[in-house]
Design brief:
Structural class: mainly alpha
Low-confidence stretches: none
Radius of gyration: 19 Å
Largest sheet: none
Shape: globular
Mean pLDDT: 96
């Protein structure tokens, strides 16, 4: 992956991206609803403008956009994601996230820096969480060497990067590296931000579906280091 002088990933040439973006912008724009757009923008604290397309309708439109298009390679995925992210309206970002989720298995570890750019640009939970659990998580599962990157991300000053590291194993179930999960939670246990504290509780609660005793034992030893929010979320379904 190449980057610009400003440190952002360069958009590869992609005829597929040209086709998809042409269809996408025309199709989504025609379905815009300004009233819904204003409400959606307020819901995410004005992080981005919206077109005002509800999720079920948006995904139906996306299927129309992608009808007849070939399977992408990594360059196509990168180009589509980065070009969507350059558009202001949030629905285009959602399209990119859905596209990467669908095709992450066709991508290599080279997509990770692109995903980091998406996580750290126009950042909010609505895109970060899906990228963490379904895209970053998929890349790390396919290439365990990327755990070294996650070990760096958990210590990052950008809270969304750290949140991504916490959540990347969210769908791993029995494949979860519990030692690493617990270490990440401890690494950020003193973080003051709501989104980190919530993520700690969420990833522990999700792992508790697989190994509730391990989560109970961990918190029995360490709960004094965590905010009440994190502990409450972690134990929500398994009790103290």
């Amino acid at each position: 992956m190449s980057v610009t002088d400003a440190g952002t990933p360069e958009v590869p040439r992609s005829a597929l991206a040209d086709t998809v973006l042409e269809r996408l912008t025309a199709t989504y724009a025609a379905a815009a609803d300004p009233v819904r757009a204003a409400a959606a923008q307020a819901y995410v604290k004005d992080v981005a403008p919206f077109l005002g397309i509800p999720t079920p309708a948006r995904r139906a439109l996306s299927r129309t956009v992608l009808e007849g298009t070939p399977r992408p390679d990594e360059a196509d995925c990168t180009a589509i994601a980065l070009r969507c992210w350059r558009l202001p309206e949030r629905e285009y970002h959602y399209f990119a996230v859905d596209y990467l989720r669908r095709h992450v298995g066709r991508c290599s570890s080279g997509l990770l820096p692109v995903t980091r750019h998406l996580v750290t640009t126009v950042s909010w939970w609505d895109t970060v969480d899906a990228l963490a659990a379904h895209v970053v998580g998929g890349l790390v599962a396919a290439d365990p060497k990327l755990t070294a990157d996650m070990d760096a991300w958990i210590a990052d000053e950008d809270l969304w990067v750290a949140r991504t590291a916490l959540l990347h194993q969210l769908r791993y179930k029995e494949r979860t590296d519990a030692r690493r999960l617990f270490a990440y939670c401890l690494r950020q246990s003193a973080h003051a931000d709501f989104f980190i504290r919530k993520a700690i509780g969420w990833c522990l609660r999700e792992y508790a579906k697989t190994d509730p005793d391990a989560v109970r034992d961990f918190l029995a030893r360490e709960r004094g280091r965590f905010a009440p929010l994190s502990v409450r979320e972690a134990l929500k379904n398994i009790g103290a």
